[in-house]
Design a protein that fits this description.
Radius of gyration: 20 Å
Distance between the termini: 34 Å
Order of helices and strands: HHHHHHHH
Largest sheet: none
Number of helices: 8
Shape: globular
Number of domains: 2
Structural class: mainly alpha
Helix content: 55-70%
Mean pLDDT: 92
Length: 199
């Protein structure tokens, strides 16, 4: 396999347990923000299930590829994709360093409760200590998506019942839709701010 979709090639080698060949595929193919990025995420997912030297033999070559990328956004997003699978491709070279204080300040300015993050990502007690930026961004994005989806579902319900329900009830539902959409925007704003200045 050499001329097909990069995602198909990587999946072919992953299914055979040949992660070295999967890494080689992403090494030789032209990096871009859709299929190539998805292919690297597939390799990262497989690496995240390994341990010890076996994992290192997959993780380190992928890390080198990502750090050499000329596209800053692709580099940042590939690092974040990997982190979703527990793989750390960034050791301070890509994402900005943020402290617990930076997070609290940004949360205050965007109007979200940072304690929501603590259910999913460990935050240091010391406000000057660095935080897991990738973890915070991934969770903030997930919260933004969840609130957005809730707003969409509720809006669909409003459209279904608007003819048969009292105006006051529909009005409450519309207010809730706006509230959920506002929360989605706020969490998205926090996630964007946390990665501003990524290299």
């Amino acid at each position: 396999m050499s001329s097909g979709r990069v995602t198909d090639e990587v999946d072919f080698h992953r299914r055979r347990g040949d992660l070295r060949s999967a890494v080689q595929v992403v090494r030789v193919r032209q990096p871009e923000r859709l299929r190539w990025r998805a292919a690297v995420a597939q390799v990262s997912q497989s690496a995240g299930q390994l341990g010890g030297m076996t994992r290192l033999r997959v993780e380190e070559p992928v890390r080198e590829i990502v750090l050499d990328l000329g596209d800053r956004i692709l580099r940042r997003e590939t690092v974040l994709d990997a982190r979703r699978f527990g793989v750390d491709l960034d050791r301070g070279e890509v994402l900005p360093v943020r402290s617990r204080w930076d997070l609290s300040r940004t949360a205050f300015l965007t109007g979200v409760n940072p304690e929501q993050l603590e259910r999913y990502v460990r935050l240091p007690g010391d406000y000057e200590a660095p935080i897991d930026v990738a973890g915070v961004v991934i969770i903030a994005r997930a919260l933004a998506q969840a609130y957005g989806e809730r707003a969409d579902k509720l809006m669909a319900r409003v459209n279904e019942v608007s003819d048969s329900s009292p105006g006051k009830h529909v009005g409450y539902m519309c207010e809730r839709v706006q509230y959920e959409r506002d929360l989605a925007r706020r969490w998205a704003a926090l996630s964007r701010t946390m990665v501003e200045g990524a290299k």
